[in-house]
Amino acid sequence: MAIISGLFQAIEPSEFYSMSGKETLEQHAKELSQSVGIDSEVLQEVNRLFVILRKFHLPPDVSRVDYTDVLFITDTQYPLSAMDMFWTEVEVVRPDGSTYEGSDTIETYLGRNWRRFSYHRNSIWNQNGNPLMDHYVFMENRWTGKATR
Questions:
Q1: What is the DSSP string of 71-116?
Q2: Within the chain, which residues score under 50 in pLDDT?
Q3: What is the per-residue burial (b if ≥16 Cβ within 10 Å, else e) of 45-79?
Q4: pLDDT at site 126
Q5: 59 Cβ partners below 8 Å, 6+ apart?
Q6: Residue 33: which H helix or E strand, with range?
Q7: Helix, strand, or coil here: 140?
Q8: Which helix H or strand E contains 46, and what residues bound it?
Q9: Would strands 112-117 and 40-45 be described as parallel, antiparallel, or unpaired?
Q10: pTM score, whole prediction
Q11: Which whole-number Å values give the CA distances from 88 to 3, 73, 109, 132, in the listed order?
Q12: Which pLDDT score is estimated for 138?
């Protein structure tokens, strides 16, 4: 940033953030794992960051499977960049084999196929605190609401 008439001062980005997006996400994933008792892993491919939550327990009688890995995706600007949607293993379908609303798309990330749940937040992304925990709660609430449809 240039100094204009002495009103602005150049500030290095490192002065704003002491950790990278990946490091911050790893810390938030650790806090989430400790809070909800689910193992998590943070992986990076180029500028994308992925969080895999291992063996998330689905609500009773909503799927042909009881547990699934869950995938969240963001980028290296986390927590400034909002998370949107979530992905599960492709076997997550209703007990009768039909798909849930907004879950017809299968995408490949990290060498695996994932079912995308195209559920979007209707609230503002809050970059403060632990936004990963907030997105987990968003996913959990959306699951509970959609599971009855």
A1: EEEEETTTTSSPP--EEE-TT---TTSPPPTT---EEEETTEEEEE
A2: 1-16, 147-149
A3: eeeebbbbbeebebeeebbeeeebbbbbbbeeebb
A4: 85
A5: 143, 144, 147
A6: helix 21-36
A7: helix
A8: none
A9: unpaired
A10: 0.83
A11: 49, 12, 11, 16
A12: 87
Contact present, 42 and 26 (Cβ < 8 Å): yes
Locate 135 and state its tokens. 């997105």
Pairing of strands 86-88, 40-45: unpaired
In the prediction, which pLDDT does 112 show? 97
Count of positions (residues) in the chain: 149
List CB contacts of 114: < 8 A, sequence separation 6 or more.
Answer: 71, 87, 88, 89, 90, 106, 107, 108
Residue 92's pLDDT is what? 96
Q: What local confidence, expressed as pLDDT, does residue 17 receive? A: 53
Residue written as token pair 């895999």: 52
